[in-house]
Amino acid sequence: MIDIKHTVHDTVDLVTVKGNLNRETAPLLNQALRALVDQGRYRILLNLSEVSLMTSAGLRVLVAILKATRPRGGDLQLLNPSERALETLKFAGLIAVFKVVNSESLGLEGFQRLPDTNQTKP
Prior knowledge:
Elements: E1 2-9, E2 12-21, H1 26-38, E3 43-54, H2 56-69, E4 75-79, H3 83-91, E5 99-101, H4 104-112
Parallel strand pairs: 2-3, 3-4, 4-5
Antiparallel strand pairs: 1-2
Helix pairs in contact: 1-2
């Protein structure tokens, strides 16, 4: 089971994930994040604080969305990953690839330092 919530903060999309991020649920997250990218929303702050399990399927989604956002002047930043999510990122050697922030305000601030893009406002 997975719960995905989305809120908009100006040009940044905050997506909060709760539950297991595995092969059954990863496609749901991929669909939600891909929809944002398809709408020209390239600045995504992904809250992983309530992820109780993350498998390689979840990692694939994160990497795919990162690869879709960065070339367009955006980013996928990880907000306060749970201990389990952090362990998975470290084990896969991906922790250095993502910007990880521990507070929503720091994450939102970090996007303000990115160069302006043609990102669509809601």
